């Protein structure tokens, strides 16, 4: 019996999916194809490559691997950035429709949706995505005003950077009951931790820039769906609007994907140990991490996810203490973004687009794969210096 990708566990898929056919003397890794155009020796037919804005052989193995990893029946679609993928996903909402989005989703997704709403493309409703009753009530109210296919429910769970956890299946079922399309940004969890398509979600979004590529050296995005009509519309949008990926970036992303499971395992276990230590630290006012039993999202995360992710958010005494912490780290890198092998630290409200409901003193930690004790030692010395500065000494 032939081995099927669907028989394989996610950590095996990261390594085994997206390989060239087993032919004698052929490479085991997909090559990079840099050509912008393809030989045409007959009249074009559906599925022909023709021109590299529409298709590139370097995309195929990555798209196959990510589609398989998310448990989709179809290959993923890779985009030039996560936000390029978000623009394509939002294009599924017809003019005059409505989008429901978490108020603490990634700031770029919110800004993009707000920009489109300001242009009159659709209504935008910001919700506390962890407040299931409030989201259900809003969907109910929209049902009376919009037809099937006019509403999109945008999920991000856990949210960036507040790490709120949504009840994915409950919200997805309610959205489908009113004919809404459901998109889930799965950047934080990755398919190693959760597969939203299995909870009924229609389209999964990734900033491939983050955990999937994993080395902070590539900007890419992706969409994944098992619905052929949606994939065709998203592919048409990508080809027409041109937010395509460079072949070299996609090759690097597939190379990064090969170690995703190991990187996630290490990041998650270190994140959990840091979260516990931070929760006991006197200079830390609050730790947000779904893996902590005291976290409001813990039970939901434990019930839905296969892990708690590699991001920890902490709140400090005030903005100055948070900025002092970020300045005092020596191993952690003070930089935006997340999901790379190197640990990053950022006070999110430094970014002007960050929602004002994110606490000013919130510092987001993206936990990499360094030695956990080294990471803790650096955080501890930085916390001591930041808090000591406030108490009049260093
Ligand atoms: C959760 C999430 N979604 C989407 C994006 C956007 O992706 P990109 O930066 O690849 O455009 C980001 C970027 O930080 C993100 O954190």
From TrEMBL:
The keyword RNA-binding does not apply. The keyword Membrane does not apply. PANTHER family: CYSTATHIONINE GAMMA-LYASE, TRANS-SULFURATION ENZYME FAMILY MEMBER. The lineage of its organism: Bacteria, Bacillati, Actinomycetota, Actinomycetes, Micrococcales. It is an enzyme of class 4 (lyase). GO terms for biological process: cysteine biosynthetic process via cystathionine; transsulfuration. Belongs to the trans-sulfuration enzymes family. Its EC number is 4.4.1.2. Its cofactor is pyridoxal 5'-phosphate. InterPro entries: Cys/Met-Metab_PyrdxlP-dep_enz, PyrdxlP-dep_Trfase, PyrdxlP-dep_Trfase_major, PyrdxlP-dep_Trfase_small. The modification N6-(pyridoxal phosphate)lysine is found at residue 210. GO terms for molecular function: cystathionine gamma-lyase activity; cystathionine gamma-synthase activity; homocysteine desulfhydrase activity; methionine gamma-lyase activity; pyridoxal phosphate binding. This is homocysteine desulfhydrase. Keywords: Pyridoxal phosphate. It comes from Arthrobacter agilis. It catalyses: L-methionine + H2O = methanethiol + 2-oxobutanoate + NH4(+); L-homocysteine + H2O = 2-oxobutanoate + hydrogen sulfide + NH4(+) + H(+). It holds the Pfam family Cys_Met_Meta_PP. GO terms for cellular component: cytoplasm.
């Amino acid at each position: 019996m032939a081995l099927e990708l669907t028989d394989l566990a996610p950590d095996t898929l990261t390594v085994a999916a997206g390989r060239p056919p087993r032919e004698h003397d052929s490479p085991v890794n997909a090559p990079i194809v840099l050509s912008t155009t393809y030989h045409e020796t007959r009249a074009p037919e559906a599925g022909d490559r023709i021109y590299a804005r529409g298709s590139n052989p370097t995309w195929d193995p990555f798209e196959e691997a990510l589609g398989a990893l998310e448990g989709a029946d179809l290959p993923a679609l890779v985009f030039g950035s996560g936000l390029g993928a978000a623009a394509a996903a939002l294009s599924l909402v017809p003019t005059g429709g409505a989008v429901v989005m978490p108020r603490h989703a990634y700031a770029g997704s919110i800004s993009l949706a707000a920009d489109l709403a300001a242009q009159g493309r659709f209504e935008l409703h910001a919700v506390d995505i962890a407040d299931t009753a409030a989201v259900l009530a809003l969907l109910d109210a929209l049902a009376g005003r919009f037809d099937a296919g006019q509403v999109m429910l945008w999920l991000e769970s856990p949210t960036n950077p507040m790490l709120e956890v949504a009840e994915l299946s409950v919200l997805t079922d309610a959205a489908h009951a009113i004919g809404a399309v459901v998109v889930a940004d799965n950047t934080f969890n990755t398919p190693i931790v959760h597969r939203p398509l299995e909870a009924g979600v229609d389209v999964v979004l990734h900033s491939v820039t983050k955990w999937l590529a994993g080395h902070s050296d590539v900007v890419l995005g992706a969409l994944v769906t098992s619905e052929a009509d949606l994939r065709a519309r998203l592919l048409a949008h990508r080809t027409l609007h041109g937010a395509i990926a460079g072949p070299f970036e996609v090759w690097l992303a597939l190379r990064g994907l090969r170690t995703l499971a190991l990187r996630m395992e290490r990041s998650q276990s270190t994140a959990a140990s840091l979260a516990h230590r931070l929760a006991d630290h006197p200079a830390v006012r609050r730790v947000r991490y779904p893996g902590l039993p005291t976290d409001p999202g813990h039970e939901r995360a434990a019930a839905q996810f296969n892990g708690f992710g590699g991001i920890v958010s902490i709140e400090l005494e005030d903005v100055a203490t948070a900025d002092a912490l970020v300045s005092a780290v020596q191993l952690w890198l003070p930089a935006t973004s997340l999901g790379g092998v190197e640990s990053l630290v950022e006070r999110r409200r430094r970014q002007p687009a960050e929602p004002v409901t994110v606490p000013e003193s919130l510092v987001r930690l993206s936990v990499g794969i360094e030695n956990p004790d080294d990471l803790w030692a650096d955080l501890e010395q930085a916390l001591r210096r930041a808090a000591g500065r406030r108490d009049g000494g260093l």
